[in-house]
Amino acid sequence: xxxxxxxxxxxxxxxxxxxxxxxxxxxxxxxxxxxxxxxxxxxxxxxxxxxxxxxxxxxxxxxxxxxxxxxxxxxxxxxxxxxxxxxxxxxxxxxxxxxxxxxxxxxxxxxxxxxxxxxxxxxxxxxxxxxxxxxxxxxxxxxxxxxxxxxxxxxxxxxxxxxxxxxxxxxxxxxxxxxxxxxxxxxxxxxxxxxxxxxxxxxxxxxxxxxxxxxxxxxxxxxxxxxxxxxxxxxxxxxxxxxxxxxxxxxxxxxxxxxxxxxxxxxxxxxxxxxxxxxx
Length: 280
Known about the structure:
Helix 8 (about 175-195) packs across helix 10 (about 260-270). It contains ten helices and eleven strands. The strands form three sheets. Strands 6, 7, 8, 9 and 10 form a five-stranded mixed β-sheet that branches. Strands 3-2-4-5 form a four-stranded mixed β-sheet. Helix 3 links the parallel strand 2 (about 50-55) and strand 3. The chain folds into two domains: about 15-45 and about 155-275, Glutaredoxin; about 50-150, Glutaredoxin (3-Layer(aba) Sandwich). It is of the alpha+beta class.
């Protein structure tokens, strides 16, 4: 969730296109015209994730402050805020207090502080993801762990793709090969359709949507990214299509396959190249 992923939710999760336009257009009152893709590169998010490092209740205040002062700067250019807490802290959830840190280690948790997008998700807000136990005083290991939170090969591909192309269609494979094939077919057809429409867009875009695939075997390596999109990292059965644009922003929510038609997918992608007038 560094500047190279802008978010996983900043890599990547917005409430939806309509809300996005309502938020951005007042900021563009001085301009004549932008495409939706253009405004997708504007930073809007003010919320952050929290990385909670839970240490032994016997950890001194000096060590706590040292951990924060040494490692918080590594997350300075991300949308993750570091917090070091003792295992007996009153702000911890029941699941966190049950996952006690091993001797000489810290239990790392990622906390989703973004506002819930529906009444259904209110009950589980804030969301928490246990990451792993990390050696407290092994600087190399802990530093590498922090870097891996905000960067990955896939996230770099997604950002590179959205920078040059109209958009990116990420296929997240599940265990059902027929559903995976259906997702590939939908993505290919939608990309071809957008390609034929590129010359007619209000603002020129040279490349059509790029199709990228995350195999079912690699889903575990991207569990943080999937979790940030509200996809259960432990459930690998469902296939998804994720449309991304701009700074890697997601258009709406991940699309379950089967469950989305070519017409619906094409309609979603059609917004990207359209004008965003100030008076919208």
